[in-house]
């Protein structure tokens, strides 16, 4: 083993540096996954419990230490159960070689990829404009890398090219398909009438109906971008990783969708560029 340098009694080698680098990247990916979601609160709860356990142990309070020790004993299993959605998302990221590679390369070199799927996002924007104006409720899930079969199977298969007319027909209140969510993958509407997981986040505004909670819930559980339009107010939100943006201009919505599809999202997703800058990137059609 070739040692690089010494810190006190510690010999630091190349392997140690690579080890620290990889752990940092891993922790950063985990942080990105749970940032802003309810998992952060759970994690802080577990941390508080663990600190309490250490204090109780040091103070030799045997009864409390035994009770807390029981919790700590099943800690790993409890973590797997509690963080199941985050673990799923993390494994999905690793499993999708391309995205992991992109994330990795982006982290070290701000490298960006080209999105090759032919997908006219303007159709979504035009449909959203009409849906907002007519106060027609809508729920649209964009998936970049997976077909989301599990969720698609809760609805009816469609498999048609994305078009404004088709979206307006699906969400028309008089059609049997209008209930639930539409899933869009690789420029195609894969399914309609899909049931999404509802967010249990207590911090969501009280006026959020089930549709908006489902949008946030889906974004917490999967690596998707979800658009919801309220039936009551015509308001639109975009949800991603358990966070949501509202009061966006349609140009900004288009920009966010393109950023997501091109895998070019900023580290702080909630940052929204001014409209002038947005229009440079998404020329009017
Ligand atoms: N878990 C879910 N998955 C998919 N779609 C859902 C889910 N929950 C609700 N929806 C859709 O949202 C529609 C409206 O739900 P609800 O009446 O609770 O919301 P709302 O208060 O009208 O919300 P909004 O103002 O956002 O339209 C439902 O008819 C259904 O189409």
UniProtKB/TrEMBL annotation:
<dbReference type="InterPro" id="IPR045585">
    <property type="entry name" value="CdaA_N"/>
</dbReference>
<dbReference type="InterPro" id="IPR014046">
    <property type="entry name" value="C-di-AMP_synthase"/>
</dbReference>
<keyword id="KW-1003">Cell membrane</keyword>
<dbReference type="GO" id="GO:0005524">
    <property type="term" value="F:ATP binding"/>
</dbReference>
<dbReference type="Pfam" id="PF19293">
    <property type="entry name" value="CdaA_N"/>
</dbReference>
<comment type="function">
    <text>Catalyzes the condensation of 2 ATP molecules into cyclic di-AMP (c-di-AMP), a second messenger used to regulate differing processes in different bacteria.</text>
</comment>
<keyword id="KW-0808">Transferase</keyword>
<dbReference type="InterPro" id="IPR034701">
    <property type="entry name" value="CdaA"/>
</dbReference>
<feature type="transmembrane region" description="Helical">
    <location>
        <begin position="63"/>
        <end position="83"/>
    </location>
</feature>
<keyword id="KW-0812">Transmembrane</keyword>
<protein>
    <recommendedName>
        <fullName>Diadenylate cyclase</fullName>
        <ecNumber>2.7.7.85</ecNumber>
    </recommendedName>
</protein>
<keyword id="KW-0548">Nucleotidyltransferase</keyword>
<comment type="subunit">
    <text>Probably a homodimer.</text>
</comment>
<dbReference type="InterPro" id="IPR003390">
    <property type="entry name" value="DNA_integrity_scan_DisA_N"/>
</dbReference>
<dbReference type="GO" id="GO:0004016">
    <property type="term" value="F:adenylate cyclase activity"/>
</dbReference>
<dbReference type="GO" id="GO:0006171">
    <property type="term" value="P:cAMP biosynthetic process"/>
</dbReference>
<dbReference type="GO" id="GO:0106408">
    <property type="term" value="F:diadenylate cyclase activity"/>
</dbReference>
<dbReference type="InterPro" id="IPR050338">
    <property type="entry name" value="DisA"/>
</dbReference>
<keyword id="KW-0067">ATP-binding</keyword>
<comment type="similarity">
    <text>Belongs to the adenylate cyclase family. DacA/CdaA subfamily.</text>
</comment>
<feature type="domain" description="DAC">
    <location>
        <begin position="84"/>
        <end position="252"/>
    </location>
</feature>
<keyword id="KW-0547">Nucleotide-binding</keyword>
<feature type="transmembrane region" description="Helical">
    <location>
        <begin position="38"/>
        <end position="57"/>
    </location>
</feature>
<dbReference type="Pfam" id="PF02457">
    <property type="entry name" value="DAC"/>
</dbReference>
<keyword id="KW-0472">Membrane</keyword>
<dbReference type="InterPro" id="IPR036888">
    <property type="entry name" value="DNA_integrity_DisA_N_sf"/>
</dbReference>
<keyword id="KW-1133">Transmembrane helix</keyword>
């Amino acid at each position: 083993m070739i040692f690089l340098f010494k810190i006190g009694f510690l010999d630091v080698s190349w392997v140690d540096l690579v080890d620290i680098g990889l752990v940092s990247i891993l922790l950063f990916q985990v942080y990105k996954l749970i940032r802003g979601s309810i998992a952060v609160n759970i994690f802080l709860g577990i941390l508080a419990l663990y600190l309490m356990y250490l204090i109780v142990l040091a103070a030799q309070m045997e009864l409390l230490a035994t009770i807390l020790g029981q919790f700590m004993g099943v800690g790993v299993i409890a973590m797997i159960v509690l963080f199941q959605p985050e673990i799923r998302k993390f494994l999905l990221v690793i499993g999708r070689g391309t995205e992991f590679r992109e994330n990795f390369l982006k982290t070290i070199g701000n490298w960006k990829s080209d999105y090759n799927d032919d997908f006219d996002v303007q159709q979504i924007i035009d449909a959203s404009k009409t849906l907002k104006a007519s106060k027609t409720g809508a729920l649209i899930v964009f998936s970049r890398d997976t077909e989301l079969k599990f969720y698609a199977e809760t609805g009816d298969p469609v498999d048609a090219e994305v078009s404004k007319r088709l979206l307006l027909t699906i969400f028309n209140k008089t059609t049997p398909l209008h209930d639930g969510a539409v899933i869009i993958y690789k420029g195609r509407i894969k399914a309609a009438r899909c049931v999404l997981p509802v967010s249990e986040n207590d911090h969501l505004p009280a006026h959020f109906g089930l549709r908006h909670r489902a949008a946030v819930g889906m974004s917490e559980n999967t690596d998707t971008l979800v658009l919801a339009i309220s039936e009551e107010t015509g308001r639109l939100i975009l949800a991603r990783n358990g966070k949501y943006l509202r009061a966006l201009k349609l140009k900004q919505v288009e920009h966010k969708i393109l950023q997501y599809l091109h895998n070019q999202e900023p580290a702080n997703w909630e940052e929204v560029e001014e409209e002038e800058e947005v229009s440079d990137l998404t020329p009017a059609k």
